[in-house]
Each structure stands twice: as C-alpha cells, then as structure tokens.
Write a structure and sequence with these properties.
Layout: H1 2-27, H2 34-42, H3 46-152, H4 156-174, H5 181-236, H6 263-269, H7 286-289, H8 293-304, H9 308-326, H10 337-360, H11 367-389, H12 395-414, H13 420-451, E1 458-459, H14 462-471, H15 477-481, E2 486-487, H16 493-512, H17 519-546, H18 553-568, H19 570-581, H20 595-622, H21 640-655, H22 661-683, H23 693-713, H24 729-744
Antiparallel strand pairs: 1-2
Length: 745
C-alpha cells in the first residue's frame, strides 16, 4: 500500500517536471535549449517524456488547424475584392491613355510656337554677343595698328606701352578668335626683337665692366689710400671744422696731393705707387669708367615687358659667374706683390660696380644678393690668401701683403661691406709673419754666433767705447776709469744680438699697424713673438753653438760671460717695448719676457759643457798613464802624464777667473773630484791583481802632486779619495791589499 503511494507520488513529480521542461522548450530560444534537453536525458523517464512531447505536438497541430479554418473565409473574400480592383484599374488606364492622346493633339500647335520663340531668343542672344565681341575687337585692331606704326617709326617706348596694353589688356579678351592669330604670332616676335636688342646692350655692359673691374678697383683703392693719408694728416694737424667722410663720398674723387709726414708710412706700406697729382685734378670713378645707361635701358624694357624677374635673374647669374672668375686667384699670385694687387683690384672693382647698381636702380640687386656675393667672395678670398700666403717665406713680402690686405679691407669697408673676417685672417697671417721672422732671425743669429771670435771687445778710443755702449746698455765704473786701450768683458755677439732683438721687435710692431688693435693687444703680440724669439730661436742657436764638437773651453767661458750680460739687459728690452707700446709692465695680463730664463738655460748648458769637456780632457791624459804595478823601483817624482795634466788644469783654471765665483769653484771641484775618482778606478781595475811597494810609491807621488795643485788652486779641503802617507808605506800597502781583496771577493 505504501509502495503504491510512493510510486504514485514519484509519478506525479515526474509529470510536473516534464511539464516544466516542455514549457521551457516552448518559451526558450533554440540556441539555449541544450541544457534543458540534457536534463531530460540525465533522468530515467525520457520515454515517458517523449510520449508527453508527442501529446503536446498533437495538441498544437489541432490548434493550428482550428485557426486556419477560422480565417479561411476572410482569405476568399480578399481574393474576390482583388479581382474587382483589377477591372477598375484597367478602366482607369484606358481613360488616362485617351486623355493623354487628346492633350498631345491639342498642344501640338503650342509646342510649335514655343520652338519658334526659342529660336528667336537664341538669335537675339547671338546678335547681342556678336555686338559685344565686335566692340572688344575694334580697340584691339586699333591698338595693333598703332603698334605697327610705332614700330615703323622706332618709337620703342610708346610701342612698349602699346604692346603692354595690347598683350595684357585687350588680347586676352579676344585671343580665341582666328583673326587675332596673326596679332598673337607677331606680338611675341616684336617682343623678342626688343628683348634681343636690350639683351645685346646688357651683354656689352657686362663685358665692359668685366674689362674695367681692374681699373675701377685700382681707382677705389687709390682713393682709400688718399683718404687714409688725409686722415693721418688731420690727426697730426687737427683743424676746426674737419668732417669725417661719409659713405656717399666714396664715389667722390680726392684730388688733393697727399704726402705722409711719417717717414715710415711710405717705406712700410709699399702698396700703391700714388702719382703726384695737381690740385683739382679728378681721378675717374666707377661711373666715369663705365657707362651704366645700357643696364638702365635694359632694365626698363624688361620691366615694361613684364620680364623684370627674368632680367634680374639673368643679370645676377652672369655677375655670379663673373664673381667666380674674379675670385679665382692665379696660380703664381704668391710670387710677387703685383699678383696680390691685381687680384684685390678685380674684387674691389666688382663690388664697387655692384654697390653702384644697388644705389642707382630699384631692385635689380638687393642687399641680400650683395651680402650673399660678399659672403662667397670673403670665404674664397680668405681661403686663397691662406693658401698663397703660406708659400711666402720672405717677411718683407708678408708685411707688404698685410698692408695691401688692410687697404683692401678699408676700401670695401667704405662701401659698407663687413671686413671683420679679413682682420681676423690678418691675425692668422701675423702668426705666419712671426714664423718667417723667426726663421730669418735664426739665420741672423747663426751668422752672428758663427762669425764671433769669442774674445772680449777691445777699444782703443773714447769714440769706440761710446759706440759699443750706445749699442748695448752696459755700465761699469771701474772699466770707465781704466785707460785706453781696454776691453769689455763680453764679445761682439752681445751688442749684435741685443740690437737684432730690437730689430725683431720693430718688425713685429710694423705688422700691428692699421690692424685696429688696442695698445694692450699690440704689446701682448710683440711680447709673445719676442718670447718665441728668445726661448726658441735664440735659445736653439746658443745650444747649437754650445754643443759643437770643436768648441773650446775659452769659447764656453766667453759664452757664459756673454749670456750673463744679455740676461741683465732683459729689463732694458722690457722698457724698450713699454716705450713703443705705451703699456706699462704693471698692467694686468701683461706678458713678461722670458729672456732671463733663456740666458740662464744657455749659461747652465755652457757650464755643463765645461764640466764635461774638462772631464774628457782629464780622461784623455789618464789614458796616457802607464803604471807598472809590479815594478820594484822606488820613484822620486810624479808621472809625466800627471805633470802635463796639472799644467793643463792650471792654465785652464786661470781662464776661469772671469767666470762668476760659484761657477769657477764648481768647475774646479768637479775636475778635481773626477780626477780623484779616476785615480781610484785606476787602482781598482780588474787587471791589477798584485801591487809592489814601488808601484804604491809612484802612485803616492802622483796623489801628492794632485794635493799640491789643490792647495795652490783653492783653499777648501781637497776631498782625497786615496789617502797614502809617505811615512807609513808598509801599513798603507797592507790596507790597499786588504781593500783589493775585499773588492775581488
């Protein structure tokens, strides 16, 4: 009973579940029906579910059938109504067709009338357009007839104006008509004819200025030279109301003869051979040497023809080509100053012409174009000068080139061109000039040192004494008191070297003129160059003399004396530079002369060479020593080689009396020390294996001879390396044999 109830309950639950699943299937989207069906197959009553599903399908089929039966009569009625509408539509179509046929028949006459009206309106419009075109064509014909008449009578300016109006105003309005073709074909021919004539004039003009550029530049530079000389006169003789030359005055000729009051200006410049000119005599300027009217006419014609830009481009292009030709220096320009002068004249002439064109035409050339050309010219000119000036080995030629460049820069600066780079380049050439001066003075110093006799300068009269003192700043009260003849302590190369140093300073000063440098900059330049002369050129020359193989001790002693006096003269060189530059040595950043160091180094090198030569001489004498270490004879006098050596040292030390005390003392001590060391080395040589009393006695005599020389030479205790007493020979022999055994071991 209970089992039956439980089965019935389970059946009811299964039925409810199946009902729920069927509702989900009916209401759920087909894409999501999978989980629902899976729940059916997961259970054990899928057979009953299928039965339930079949029952539900049959129920829906019955409902669909009932619905179709319910609406079938309405469908039949709709078909009947459509058949009725088709008949009415056919009647309406027939009526519309009949109405259209009647309308076409009735409107045929109206269409014909409208077509006739359309043709009349078209003819009226064509007639009006023809009248308008004829009104445009008549002025064209009149202008063309007028143009032909003007061309026949060679009235080019009115013809250009007529051509301009005809081409730009009238022809564009009627150019599509065939009768204008003849005009269109002839007008370009006329225009080309006028342009060809004007272009021919322009080419003649360009050829003219190319030929005259050299002369124009020469004239401009001559004017600048005259103006600079005039400025110098004004500075030296200031007058009230004097005025500075303006840029406009660059085109005006200075006619007055200019003569410099400074004797160095003519000698040092060496640039322009300015001929003497009468007062009021005019030198032709750019506008006098070249006729500029062709370029003005050509510019006007091209402007009227509307080809001004073409003309400007052509003119600028041709002038650029000429500029490149002008800026190309000749290969042998560095050989003579005339080569540089011709090169600068052409450049100046070119830019004087361009500056004239700039100020007398409106837009043919502009400032940007001029600046571009000048930048190109400046870079090429500087490059050419750097290249060619590097070949110059003559300082006089470099100096003349510098003066020429300064005049070149001053000339172009008058016309408004920036020339700072040229002056910067001159500072580079200044370094090259200094190098050429150093090479020249190296030869001068070499000749002075080679030709010197390295003996004190003898003077036999007051006149000779004053001459030497005038050449070299030397004061010695004791020497002045001595009667004639007498001698200066230094040799001839001292005043010669001193004067050549001053000449070098003068040469450096010449280059700094007209460079627009301050006194401080000039002073610094001179001092640096002079330092190079002292520390490199003169120092090398002195070192070469000192290191010569055949130089003697007397020459070395004289070199020490000479360098001592040259060292003392350095303060006078400082004063000399101060006087010519007006810059006090106490000024900040003022470069000091290194002459003291140079002469000290040379003197120290000479001292070292003296020490070396003395030691070499001592070694040469010692090579003559021939000790018989096994002799049994007891000698009673020093060896011959040592006697000769002592005589040589005595004569040599006598020469050292002119040296400073410290130097002489060091030389004597060095020689004696070297002699003592060498004697010790003779005793300790490897070949000396045995000694006899006779050999020790002879060696002792030689050492005592050295001591006697030492006692007569100078007072300090002689540092004997070998101390052998004459009274205790056996003891010293034992001591030496013992030392010898220790050394051998």
């Amino acid at each position: 009973m209970e089992r039956g109830k439980m089965a019935e309950a389970e059946s009811l639950e299964t039925a409810a579940e199946h009902e729920r699943i069927l509702r989900e299937i009916e209401s759920t989207d087909t894409a999501c029906i999978g989980p629902t069906l899976r729940s059916v197959y997961d259970g054990e009553e899928h057979g009953r579910f299928m039965e339930k599903l079949e029952t539900r399908i049959r129920n829906h089929d019955r409902e669909i059938e009932k619905m179709c039966n319910f609406h079938y009569q309405g469908f039949v009625d709709s078909i009947t109504e459509l058949l009725k509408v088709r008949g009415e539509a056919q009647k309406l179509k027939n009526q519309v067709t009949d109405t259209n046929r009647k309308l076409q028949h009735e409107g045929k006459e109206l269409v014909i009338a409208m077509e006739e009206l359309k043709q009349c309106r078209l003819q009226q419009r064509n007639i009006s357009a023809t009248v308008d075109k004829l009104m445009l064509c008549l002025p064209v014909l009149e202008m063309y007839s007028k143009l032909r008449d003007q061309m026949k009578t060679k009235r080019h300016y009115p013809a250009l104006k007529t051509l301009e109006h005809l081409e730009h105003t009238y022809l564009p309005q009627v150019s599509h008509y065939r009768f204008c073709k003849v005009m269109v074909d002839n007008i370009p021919k006329l225009r080309e004819e006028i342009k060809d004539v004007s272009m021919s004039d322009l080419k003649d003009f360009l050829e003219s200025i190319r030929k005259h550029s050299d002369k124009i530049g020469e004239t401009a530079m001559k004017q600048a030279q005259q103006q600079r000389n005039l400025d110098n006169i004004v500075l030296q003789q200031p007058r009230i109301g004097s005025k500075r030359k303006s840029k406009k005055d660059a085109y005006i000729i200075f006619d007055t003869e200019i003569e410099s009051t400074s004797p160095k200006s003519e000698q040092d410049s060496g640039i322009l051979d300015v001929e003497d000119e009468e007062d009021d005599e005019e030198v032709p300027g750019a506008q006098d040497l070249v006729d500029f009217s062709p370029v003005y006419r050509c510019l006007h014609i091209y402007s009227v023809l509307g080809a001004r830009e073409t003309f400007e481009n052509y003119y600028r292009k041709q002038r650029r080509k000429q500029a490149r030709l002008v800026l190309q220096p000749p290969s042998n320009m560095h050989e003579t100053l005339d080569g540089y002068r011709k090169y600068f004249n052409q450049i100046v002439g070119f830019f004087v012409v361009e500056d004239h064109i700039l100020h007398t035409t409106q837009g043919l050339v502009n400032r940007a174009y001029i600046d571009e050309l000048w930048e190109m010219a400046l870079s090429k000119t500087i490059a050419a000068l750097r290249t060619h000036s590097s070949y110059c080995s003559d300082p006089n030629l470099v100096l003349d080139l510098k003066n020429l460049i300064v005049l070149f820069a001053d000339t172009l600066q008058v016309y408004g061109f920036p020339v700072n780079q040229l002056f910067d380049m001159l500072l580079e050439i200044r370094d090259q000039y200094s190098e050429t001066l150093l090479k020249k003075w190296a030869g001068i110093f070499r000749n002075i040192l080679d030709s010197d006799n390295y003996s004190p300068i003898p003077v036999t009269s007051e006149e000779m004494y004053k001459k030497v003192v005038g050449q070299f700043p030397f004061q010695d009260i004791e020497l002045e008191k001595q009667p004639f003849p007498k001698k200066f302590p230094f040799s001839e190369f001292v005043p010669k070297v001193y004067n050549q140093i001053k000449e070098f300073i003068y040469a450096c000063l010449k280059f700094s003129e007209d460079l627009h440098l301050s006194s401080t900059e000039i002073d610094d330049m001179i001092r640096k160059s002079t330092n190079l002369l002292l520390t490199r050129t003169l120092s090398n020359s002195l070192q070469n003399v000192i290191k010569r193989k055949n130089i003697g001790l007397t020459e070395l002693v004289q070199i020490i004396i000479n360098t001592t006096h040259l060292e003392k003269s350095c303060k006078y060189l400082e004063e000399f530079i101060t006087n010519i530059t007006n810059v006090l040595p106490e000024t900040v950043h003022t470069t000091k002369l290194y002459g003291t160091t140079t002469f000290k180094d040379a003197r120290h090198a000479a001292e070292e060479e003296i020490y070396t030569n003395l030691n070499q001489k001592i070694d040469q004498f010692l090579q003559l020593a021939d000790y018989d270490w096994m002799t049994g004879d007891l000698g009673n006098k020093a060896s011959d080689y040592l006697v000769d050596l002592i005589a040589f040292l005595r004569s040599t030390f006598a020469v050292f009396t002119h040296l400073p005390g410290k130097v002489a003392q060091t030389a004597c001590m060095s020689a004696c020390k070297h002699l003592a060391t060498s004697l010790m080395q003779l005793l300790l040589e490897a070949e000396v294996r045995q000694l006899t009393l006779g050999a020790l006695q002879q060696f002792n005599l030689d050492v005592r001879e050295c001591e006697k020389f030492r006692q007569k030479t100078y007072k300090p205790t002689f540092m004997r390396q070998i101390n052998i007493s004459q009274g205790d020979v056996p003891f010293q022999r034992k001591l030496l044999i013992g030392n010898w055994s220790l050394i051998k071991n």
